[in-house]
Amino acid sequence: MVKKLANKKFEDIDNQILRSFSFPSFFYIMLIALCNLLVLGGLIGFGVQWALGMGTNGLNIPVGWAMHIANYVFWIAVAMSGTFISAMLFLFRTDWRSVINRVAETMTIFGIAVAGLFPIIHLGRNWVFFWVLPYPNWRHLWPNFKSPLVWDVLAIITYFTISVLIFYLGLLPDIAAIRDKVPKGWRKSAYKLLSLGWTGRYEQWREYTRAYLVLAVLGMPIAMSVHSVVAFDFSMSLLPGWHSTFYAPYFVAGAINSGLATIVSLLIPLRKTLHLEKIFLPRYFQQMAMLMVLMGWILGYYYGEESFMDWYSGNIFIRQFSVYRGMGSGYYSSIFWITIVCVVFVPMTFLFKKLRTNLRYLFVAAIFVNLGMWLERYMLVITPLTHGYLPTQWGIYVPHAPESLITGMAIGMFLGLFLIFIKIFPSVAVNDVKKLAQEHLEVQHEDRTGQG
Questions:
Q1: DSSP state of 40
Q2: 159 assigned to some structural domain
Q3: For 54, 61, 337, 406, which has the most beta carbons within 10 A of its beta carbon?
Q4: How far apart are CA 181 and CA 187, in angstroms?
Q5: Is 61 helix (H, G, I), strand (E, B) or coil?
Q6: Quick one: average pLDDT of 150-163?
Q7: What is the pLDDT of residues 87-107, one digit of tens each?
Q8: What is the domain range of residue 26?
Q9: Higher per-residue confidence, 142 vs 253
């Protein structure tokens, strides 16, 4: 009886997920068009910057790092969190991990792709970006390994490698399943090539499980180390507001919060448009909401601890910067308090069951959390540079059109790649969802048998 129910359940799962490969709807086409428009605007902005120089941005003395670096930190955080969350839930054997892992791992790949552009965009001479790589050359020069730019490049390459391995390994059984269902043609040939001869034999599953476990164990510390390296870009400086010993765990906590908010804001529309209500159950979103509450508490602690240590240090420059950031005139203090509200107080509303079970509210709240996390990166990068040790080092930064267009391009590129992905590959791990469904059926059968 359980076997028959499982087969029926598996067939329903296949039908629901394969529905996403149907002809795109008008709404989907309009979203792709919007993403393309954002990317086109960003390319125009980058073209202006390329032709006329970095002066077309809002950069000035003393603000040499600005929106490009803030975007880099934000997107590398989104990328870091995807693999970290997926690996963490896998190692803790969380059942609902099978529902979100595909979106989390996909988010990592596209997040790295977007984040990796910004160190190149930020270079004055973009066409010689490969000089930051340690390769043999006729000039007999090596990159400066004390430079944060080199740290970032090496961190991105390392993390991208482990993330692609985890992502592709998890995708392998699903590619084979699609290969067996699509009609003959170029698509079947492409899926056959990508499936690497996967047939689902016991030996393949055994090696698959072992390899995934090894990659998950490696992925978590590598993800944490990558964002810690990004934190060192700032904390190694002596500027008030940057020089800190707690930035590494603070950045990791912020990245996890960004990742959870991004997963929620991607899954809720995906659930509605692809009619995956029976797979993306409401309780999964409630559990992610409670994780966001936890991260909100942790980040709130870090904000409070930073302000307290600024006062406790006795350093007049650090104290003055803390006052300037939180209570100064102008829009920097406004950004600080908007960040606090979005990152700390908005997730606290999820403590009310009525709110965290409302998926529309959860979607809007997740957008606000990510807005707060972006503003936090903006504030973290720019504010210390505008208020140095001496009044001669004080300044103001206002973003210009090229930077704003490139920021929009990053959003359009990320969403566009994700929308294309869900039309080519399953948006959930089909075999993992089937395994989860079978376990639930077996539990229900045992309960009914016991009652009988």
A1: H
A2: yes
A3: 406
A4: 11
A5: coil
A6: 86
A7: 888 888 887 787 888 899 999
A8: 14-451
A9: 253
* Residue 347 confidence (pLDDT): 96
What is the helix (H) or strand (E) element at residue 452, kind and residue range? none
Between the CA of residue 53 and those of 45, 121, 122, 236, 342, what are the distances in Å?
A: 11, 11, 11, 28, 35
pLDDT band per the 50, 70, 90 thresholds, residue 297: very high
- 344 secondary structure, DSSP code: I
What's the token pair of residue 353? 């069951």
Average pLDDT score over residue span 293-311: 91
Place of tokens 């009619």: 275
Which tops the pLDDT comparison, 417 or 325?
417
CA dist 182 to 11, 245, 275, Å? 15, 54, 21
Tokens representing residue 364 in the block: 């809007």
Q: Give the span between the Cα atoms of 340 and 337, in whole angstroms.
A: 5
- In angstroms, the CA 219 to CA 278 distance is 30
Q: In what helix (H) or strand (E) does residue 183 lie, and over which residues does it extend?
A: none
In single-letter form, the type of residue at position 330 comes to G
Say if 3 falls within a structural domain: no
Strand partners, 394: 387
2: in domain:
no
**What is the domain count for the chain?**
1
Q: Does position 213 have pLDDT exceeding 80, yes or no? A: yes
Q: Is the pLDDT of residue 78 over 90?
A: yes
The SS3 call for residue 387 is: strand
Alpha-carbon span 324 to 383, nearest angstrom? 9
CATH number at residue 248: 1.20.1630.10
- Helical H segments across 313-429, by residue range: 316-327, 331-340, 346-348, 353-356, 359-386, 401-421
pLDDT at 15: 64
Closest CA to 68 of 93, 49, 44: 49
Q: Rounded to whole angstroms, what are the CA distances from 328 to 308, 349, 399?
A: 17, 28, 20
- Give the integer Cα–Cα distance in Å for 271 and 277: 6
pLDDT digits (tens, 9 = 90+) for 169-179: 988 988 888 88
What percentage of the chain reaches a pLDDT higher than 70? 89
Q: Is residue 8 part of a domain?
A: no
